[in-house]
Please model this.
Amino acid sequence: MLVALIIACEIGFWVLLAGGLALRYLARMPKLGAAVLLCEPLLELALLVATTLDLKNGGEPSWTHGLAALYLGYTVGYGPYTVKWLDRHAAYRFGEGPKPPGPMYGKARAAHEWKLWVRTLAGAAVALGLLQAAVWYVGDAADTGGLRAWQIAALRVFVIHTVVAATYSIWPRKAPAGAGPAR
Model:
């Protein structure tokens, strides 16, 4: 059941995002579009409640609970960024917004990657916190190995992103010839 709910939340996220942006820019109803966009956190709240209730009602901690925690962590870290990024592009494409910045090079790109790294840190921290709370919640009565494995997965994602961000600082991406100065 949790996997279906995670999939439904992901689909719901994109449906609400597309609907909110369509209302804002195509239907010229910015307040209604903003209201639809503000409904997105309700999906994650529903997933958190369903996951907690599943564990409360005696559900064995499994990979589905770990996946739900990682999904919630990712949503906390990257959800608002994704909405703002797509909103800027929709405003440019369908509204009268300025053109979003193009690819970045050099120090600007490295700074951007470190900002994304902070989002990954936040997402990993949320996922680790939720997973640890689940481990404490179910206690010693259940096998928590699956939850611990997801904690390791969250840490692995964080370490990989740390390496990626560091490479942009150590070996900055150079602008192609004739592309102009680095931003």
